[in-house]
Structures are given as structure tokens and as C-alpha cells.
Amino acid sequence: MFNTNTEKKMPITFNVVPKKNPQQPDNPLKYYANIVGEGKTTLADLAKYAATVSTVSKADILAVLESTFSKIADDVADGKIVYVGEYFTLQAGGSSEGKDTPDEVSASSIKSVKTIFRPGKMIKDALKLATYKKKE
């Protein structure tokens, strides 16, 4: 496990967005905080970081990460629920067209497929400690 306690934590950025209540469109607008992504972390960034806190090279770590995420993708595509420790779970989900009888439901009834991501304890705990800043 990586110890991230010594890393400087950056606040999560949000902007302000006006929204109408669709149930009461004549009511005045209300303003909400909308969290926005800032920056990015790549697989190479993860491997570089892991190399700085371990005795394993960046290239070796990158090879392990690539093969791990490839296996995760294959298993999700096979319909498995993939548990990644206390970090997260992934599985396939989707929506389908409604039919009048069970016999009418088939694979062609499936209209969209998505990935369902569920954060685990480690990510939930990290978000509880997050700070926030308004985008300038």
C-alpha cells in the first residue's frame, strides 16, 4: 500500500452553476456548487510515483499495471464483478427496452451498456478528508 500522508493535498475545485427547478420552472434560479476536474493522473504517473516509494522500477510497475488493468477490462467484459481491494469495484450494467412478456426479452433488448464504478473504503475515506476551493 502507498503511504500518501506526506503528499501535499490539493483542494477539489468547484464552480457555481445556476439551475431551475424542473418541477417549478417559474421559481427563481438557485445556485449550486459543481465539482470540476482539474489536471490528470496517467498510468505513467502512477508507475513513476510507485517507483519512488518502492524498490521496483517504473518500467516494471508500468508492466504490472498494464497487465492488471487489461485483466480487469477482460473480466468486466465477461460479466464479472471485479473487486480491487478496498479501493473500488467495477462491473457491467446497462438498460434495456421493455417488452410485454418475458419470452420477448433477448440480448437485442439491451440498448446501452456502461461500467458501474463503486468506490471502496480507501477512496471514500480519502474523499471525507478532501478540501474544496471555488474556481476563480
TrEMBL record:
Annotated keywords: DNA-binding
A Pfam family: HU-HIG
InterPro entries named in the record: HU-HIG, IHF-like_DNA-bd_dom_sf
Domain of life per record: Bacteria
Limits of the HU domain: 10-131
GO terms, molecular function: DNA binding
Keyword DNA-binding found: yes
Name assigned to this protein: Putative histone-like DNA-binding protein
Species the sequence originates in: Chryseobacterium geocarposphaerae
